[in-house]
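Much of the work behind modern protein science is quiet bookkeeping, done one molecule at a time. Below is the pair of lines this work produces for a single protein:

***
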Amino acid sequence: MFNSRLTSIIRKEFIQIIRDPRTLAMILLVPVMQLFLLGYAATTDVRNIPIAVLDQSRSPESCALLDAFRAADYFRIAFDVGSNAEVRDLIERGDARAALIIPPDYSESLLAGDAQVSMILDGSDSSVGGTALSTARLIGQAHATKLMREQAARSGRSGVFNPPLEVRTQVWYNPDLISAHFMIPGVIGMILFAITSILTATTIVRERERGTIEQLIVTPIRSWELVVGKLTPYVILSLFDTLVVLAIGHLWFGVPVRGDLGLIIILSGLLLLSGLGIGLYASTIANTQQEAMMTTWMTLLPAIFLSGFLFPLEAMPRVLYWISYIIPLRYYLVIIRSLLLKGVGIAAIQNQVIALAIFGIGIMGAAALRFRKRLD
């Protein structure tokens, strides 16, 4: 009798799951998504770091040094610039993570045995900066050793030679490569994105579960007024959480706030549009709070792994790297880290701002239209 009842309960649960395509899809897709994201994106190996090169020597010797950096597979020479101002501009915009500066007298200094080149690193991303720092030194040492061997072969004698090349590294924006300076700006983005989407979705569904949403519909309140009224408290709470995290990060962890605070708040509002839109959309396809939570988590998982929040985008396979361009949080993390750590102006991050605005307005607009149609 006991086994029969247990079997019946198990059978009933399976039938309910099979009859609910959304729940079944979430049960099957979320673990698979986690597997692929963790398997491919969750890596701390950093490769293909885009760097800018200011080669003031333009000699065969400087070309040989650049070939050594290319062969290491850790750096990708993405920009060939002609001035220090271009170097600073590329690093501030985040297009280049590092810059190699070869002086005009590199060839002559190399023959004299005291050549020096400079490697400037963007320390706003501590994981990439730390790897680039150690790798640049190793490449310099390996190339210097190769040159010493060539000198010994040409002179026909063996002995101890002083290294003819030294790679001097500089780290900008986060000289000590403190991981908290990299993580806390990301936490601000995750708070804004996660809280607004989850709370918006569950609160509206809660109204539907209790039957109070129907009471609101029959009142003279217009649909857009209902949407705005429901979303406004979460905008305020999310911005308050942002200020709290920002204050704690600055006062407790020493995270610098080099950018304009007003600009930080305004641009954070663009991310809020995406989070609120996702939550609002989830509320139109979910019938219970549990379904709403699972639906929003379907979007949070890619945001966590494919935005650069935890793992460097350069280390991911190219397919996942291109998919990351449809993650709104990716753009906000570049914005918030640039504002806090680099103190840049709007011009340096205008591409990210435009992309975030397009995503926010598009997602929010589509969700509001669907929500209004469901109310009608």
